[in-house]
Amino acid sequence: MPQKTSAESPFQPPLELLRLWMDYGGWYDRSKCAWKYILDSQLVAAMAPPSGGRAVICNRTQARFHLVNITTPEDSQLTRIFESIMMPKLQEFDNEIKPMSRSLARATIGLYRNVTERFLPTPDKSHYLFNLRDVAKVIQGTLQAERQYFDTSKSMIRLWTHECMRVFADRFLKDSADDIGKFIEAMSQVMRDHFEGAEWAEVMEDIDDERYGPIFCSFMSETTEILPYEEVADYSQLKQCCEDKLEDYNLEPKLINMNLVLFKDAIRHICRIHRILMMPRGNAMLVGVGGSGRQSLARLASHIAGIGVFVIEITKQYRLIEWRDDMKRLFEITGVSNTPTAFLFNDTQLKEQAFLEDINNILSSGEIPSLYGKDELPAIYDGVRKRAADAESGGTAEELWAFFVDSIRSNLHVILAMSPPLRP
Hints:
The protein has helices at residues 13-24, 59-62, 75-90, 101-118, 132-142, 153-167, 179-194, 200-203, 235-251, 264-278, 294-304, 320-336, 353-365, 377-390, 397-411, and strands at residues 26-29, 34-37, 216-217, 230-231, 284-287, 308-310, 341-346, 412-418. It is of the alpha/beta class. Helix 12 links the parallel strand 6 (308-310) and strand 7.
């Protein structure tokens, strides 16, 4: 939004329009040659410190606001927040696990601080960006535990280790720097500090690959209505389960058969993607060279999770208009029909940069600005009215639209299949 007219000019047209509204109460309509006043409206803006893709806003726009700086919370405050979230859940467990909420919260925050200080972004590792959402994802994954499957502190620590590996270590590159090895060293120190001297080797004593950690998934047991999130004790059983799911996928009449060899890394990737898809509002970016199985494994993991896959079809004439029509179809599936769907998008389909801007809007707010015309909105309101009434939501246009957007965010999982940048 604050894009400058040129690299040398400080002029930012969108922000100047906002400043014009704040100074003069509206804008001049050049088509009707009349002034339009904006009544009964106030502007509240939020921004992070300029860095990365965030630019500095001009001083004369900033001068129109009353500035409030929200400082980063202290570790003690974060510990209190996440401990309060975990404590009610852990009260259902055995006495050995009940008091672990504080230790788990402090260990996660300590590991997060270590990672942000030790693994900094570089041109080759520009995705090494971590924030407090990563701490929340670790806590969210740990809260998937059920008391029937976790009855010792060691089992809980193994679950916490798995979630930390999935949230932090899965984005590390495998190169000469050995970032995964350094991360394991950091995690070992955190475990000793917060879990009464627990050692990495002791916790991982029967794990096949310590650098990957234990494997957890929720599709092994099909005898219960609620699929438990549990550790995989028998790898051969997990492999057989994945092969059976692949066979079921190939028997589906509307799906294209996939002849896949499910080796160990492929099965682990399936567990990774399935875990993300089962998370509320879980989205994934799969980075790998073409032909490495990004899309195939994403389709199989979506099938295992019972989620449909939506893919756009690129043609020579495919432009922004066709893209917006496809987005409308996707929103109708997820928002009106209330169908869980994974939107699989790869870098070869990126015909215009506006596609990425729309995907960013979907990820951040669940909607694309100005996607629908006024004549298209009544059909959307009618499509969600009954479900909104069942959910005891309001029936006004604003409330129906909010319910529609919330349904999209709950049902839509974005999977981006991207290739790594080419090195000279």
